[in-house]
Amino acid sequence: MAGISIRLSALVALLAPLAVFLAGRVRVLSLAYFNAPGRMPNYANFTSSEIKFTEQIRSCEDVLLVEARGLALLACDPGRETWNTVMGFFVEGEAPHQNAELWAYNYTNPSLSDAQSLSPIEIVGLHTELRTVGFEFHEPSETLFVTNHGREGPRIEQFHLDLETLVATHTRTLSHPLLRAPNSIVALSGSEFFFTNQHHFTARESGRLLWALETYVALPIASVVHAHVLEDGTLDAAVVARQAYPNGIALLNDSTLAVAATSKRLVNLYTILPGEPGRTHGRLQLNTSIWLPFLPDNLAVSKADGALLIAGHPHLLSLNKFSRSRRVCHRPEAVAAGGEKARKMCDKTGAASWASEWTPEDGLKHIYAGWEYPTSSSVVRDREKGVGIVSGLYSKGLLIWRD
Ligand SMILES: *[C@@H]1O[C@H](CO)[C@@H](O)[C@H](O)[C@H]1NC(C)=O
Ligand SMILES: *[C@@H]1O[C@H](CO)[C@@H](O)[C@H](O)[C@H]1NC(C)=O
Ligand SMILES: *[C@@H]1O[C@H](CO)[C@@H](O)[C@H](O)[C@H]1NC(C)=O
Ligand SMILES: *[C@@H]1O[C@H](CO)[C@@H](O)[C@H](O)[C@H]1NC(C)=O
Questions:
Q1: Are 154 and 148 in contact (CB under 8 A)?
Q2: Mean pLDDT of the 43-69 span
Q3: Least crowded by CB within 10 Å, which of 17, 138, 192, 271?
Q4: Is 265 a residue whose pLDDT tops 70?
């Protein structure tokens, strides 16, 4: 009897994690059903909205607010249509697209014309390719950190950004063995930040098979890294947590860091523990996780009420198709060359967005869910001015709402 019960408990010990694993996978896969076109719920929890700047900007993965000035900063990379390190596909043989661009949108006055309210940020002193995903601005030190995953390898570019003149002057290029697939950055000062590596196995270096295994099995092996920029411009960095697909990152308060786990449909809240004496990096301890009805991408914190803002992808199949089609659909000459067939394909290829906010008191509330504005990757909100912005990984322009 004892033998059987030992074997049984060994079996249970083996199966319990498997059951947890499978339940987690089913939760993610079930989105293909629940968020299919026609079945996904729609939300538009604001007074009015419009999709703006569709002719000026596209593929803006990240947006952040400088509320004191009524400015939204944007990192937009149309080059993602052919050089996509996040989704792991590359169109070989095509010349690199023009560099990613940074923009500033003055959202204070809705009656300003597009030309008056949207301005490019001039980049000075960077002489390499720039392919962006996430970026971060540390306001007191006017330091801008921009992820760069161009052909020269993964790095973070540091700039000094003057918001009066909208000129970003390149200070240095940061690289480090722990900088593998930088996705999002949150700055603690002008020389200290956390960043996420969304994968351990990158498609470019490790091949698509390992990349896909890590993505779809949601292996908890990718890292959250804490880094200091040293006097000599090098990086002192250490892994402070490992989880599946660390994507957006935001500081909720001095002791809590939120990190999206995209491939698990949740956002992890970590308690930041100080380092032991003599160790500069500290570590993160998982406190709790927030379940979402979509795969979370970037995170932001609303200044006025401290709410965590979460944007992401409700329906992966559509997102995949949509992202691969942009190379044709966003280029008039490619659509013309493809004729009627290409036009039809572009007309019927859509993708969904979902943006929500979370507070410990009220839990999750939905702001926008729908298909009119595709591929939401970031959401920010200025409560005082009653303005919110959703930006899309592969979309033209921005969704801007007012309350
Ligand atoms: C934004 O526009 C308003 C209204 O025209 C103007 O007063 C303000 O100076 C502008 N802000 C910036 C940072 O350019
Ligand atoms: C920080 O935020 C977390 C999550 O909202 C909360 O549980 C915690 O109490 C906050 N801590 C402080 C010091 O405000
Ligand atoms: C989570 O954070 C709260 C608030 O900071 C704290 O009281 C609680 O002990 C933490 N729980 C765990 C499991 O770390
Ligand atoms: C819409 O927003 C209001 C105010 O923030 C909130 O009370 C309500 O619960 C939200 N509705 C949904 C469906 O999340």
A1: yes
A2: 97
A3: 17
A4: yes
The answer to whether residue 396 sits within a structural domain is no
Whether residue 168 contacts residue 184, with contact meaning beta carbons closer than 8 Å, is answered with no
Torsions phi, psi for 57 (to 5 deg) = -135, 150
Atom of ligand 2 nearest to the CA of 252: 2
Q: Is residue 126 part of a domain?
A: yes
Per-residue model confidence as pLDDT tens digits over 9-47:
777 777 777 888 888 888 899 999 999 999 999 999 999
Question: Which structural domain range is residue 242 located in?
Answer: 63-313
Q: Mutation test of ligand 1: which of 108, 113, 162 has the most ligand atoms closer than 8 Å to its C-beta?
A: 108
Q: Is the CB of 54 under 6 A from ligand 3?
A: no
Which ligand is nearest the CA of 358, by number?
A: 2
Residues 196, 250 contacting (CB under 8 angstroms): no
> 21-30 burial, b for 16+ CB within 10 Å, e for fewer?
eeebeeebee
| CATH code (residue 304) | 2.120.10.30
Query: For the chain, how many structural domains are there in total?
Result: 1
Q: Domain for residue 376, yes or no?
A: no
The model's pLDDT over 182-229, given as tens digits with 9 standing for 90+, comes to 999 999 999 999 999 999 998 888 888 898 889 888 999 999 999 999
Contact 378, 63 (CB under 8 A): yes
Query: Encoding tokens for residue 138?
Result: 């540390």
Distance 279 CA to ligand 4 centre (A): 44
**Structural domain contains residue 44:** no
Q: Is the CB of 365 under 6 A from ligand 4?
A: yes
- With a 6 Å cutoff on the Cβ, whether 366 touches ligand 4 is yes
DSSP 3-state of 103: strand
Coil vs helix vs strand at 343: helix
pTM (2 d.p.): 0.93
Computed over its alpha carbons, how large is the radius of gyration of the chain? 21
Q: Strands 43-44, 71-76: parallel, antiparallel or unpaired by DSSP?
A: unpaired
Region for 207 from its dihedrals, namely left if φ exceeds 0, alpha if ψ lies in -120 to 50, beta otherwise: left
Q: Using a 6 Å cutoff on CB, does residue 360 contact ligand 2? A: yes
Q: What pLDDT is attached to residue 3?
A: 61
**Residue 319: which of 286, 346, 341, 349 has the closest Cα?**
349
Q: Which residues contact 187 (CB under 8 A, 6 or more apart)?
A: 136, 137, 138, 143, 145, 193
